[in-house]
Amino acid sequence: MKILVVGGAGYIGSHMVKMLLDEGHKVVTFDNLSSGFRDAVLGGDFVEGDLANTAMLDDVFTKYKPEAVMHFASYIQVGESVQHPAKYYFNNFTNTLNLLNTMVKHQVNSFIFSSTAAVFGEPEYVPIDEAHPKAPLNPYGRSKLMVEQILADYEHAYGLKSVCLRYFNAAGADPGALLGERHEPETHLIPLVLQAISGRRSHISVFGRDYDTPDGTCIRDYIHIVDLCSAHLLALTQLVKDGVSQRFNLGNGAGFSVQEVISVAEQVTGKKVNVIDAPRRAGDPARLVADATLAKNTLGWSPVYTDLATIIAHAWAWETK
Ligand code: UDP
């Protein structure tokens, strides 16, 4: 297939582009390089552009004639979304609308959307399945849920079919260390711990040890980037075949605490990290774990790199490259 990957120069998008190319698909990456890197796009065609530029977007569809679109381009910092909601609604919602409208115009009807566990808000139960109430706590989560909601309207009115994939904590790196996590600024736990171990940072802060969890630190569901991408590929294949829109939660189904991540990182690297206890970070639920049964049963998806040590080892190989 020919697939337009929007945001293909970012962390998840670049791993996706690599997998699509490895599987023999044709890829066009569209990215404004606001947080992505040109050299992370390992092949296919590349267009530097912004979704706000609808004329340019239109030209891309006319020139490359994609059969499907995967959309990874969004801002992802929860705290920033509270400070600057306009930025988040503009980029994550309005710009996505531009993309969807261009798809409708060019009659491209298959859309894979990067959604997030943040659409659920404070969990009412864990593990979180697709039926869990959607009550996002911040503009970031709301901007993603709004897209999920309008996709139902676009399907009804325009026949645009979609799969929304709600990521829990994407982590790890390409097993060959060709790609990895390069956020600027970095806010995610695993790369921060590894940067503290490698000496790029002085320490890792633990945001709260008084949560209602066995060791008092927050529990998250870390899913390997390659497993995340393989779910996208299966979702696209099935969407094109069956034309059935769906929403899936994607995680390992296993939770690991902040302290466990630090301990496993020390084991994997054989080095100690300087840990500083810090206050809770606003808006952090104690426990976020996915129930990914639906994705497994419906897509035949089976994550390969479920072991935290493997996820961290791949991230470490990238960090030390
Ligand atoms: N965390 C931490 N110190 C850091 C960064 C993150 O203790 O420097 C904690 C954070 O409070 C959360 C977990 O690690 O409980 C995962 O945070 P991250 O930002 O990686 O992902 P999120 O779950 O917020 O999407």
TrEMBL record:
Q: How does it assemble?
A: Homodimer.
The UniProt entry's sequence similarity note says:
Belongs to the NAD(P)-dependent epimerase/dehydratase family.
Co-factor(s): NAD(+)
Q: List this protein's GO terms for biological process.
A: galactose catabolic process via UDP-galactose, Leloir pathway
The UniProt record lists the EC number as 5.1.3.2
Q: Please state the pathway this protein functions in, per its UniProt record.
A: Carbohydrate metabolism; galactose metabolism
EC top class, as a word: isomerase
Q: Which UniProt keywords apply?
A: Carbohydrate metabolism, Isomerase, NAD
Q: Which GO terms describe its molecular function?
A: UDP-glucose 4-epimerase activity
Per the record's keyword annotation, is Amino-acid biosynthesis included, yes or no? no
Q: Where is the NAD-dependent epimerase/dehydratase domain?
A: 3-251
Report the protein name in the record: UDP-glucose 4-epimerase
Q: Which InterPro entries match?
A: Epimerase_deHydtase (IPR001509), NAD(P)-bd_dom_sf (IPR036291), UDP_G4E (IPR005886)
Enzymatic reactions? UDP-alpha-D-glucose = UDP-alpha-D-galactose
The coiled-coil segments of this chain are none
**Which Gene3D superfamilies does its entry note?**
NAD(P)-binding Rossmann-like Domain (3.40.50.720), UDP-galactose 4-epimerase, domain 1 (3.90.25.10)
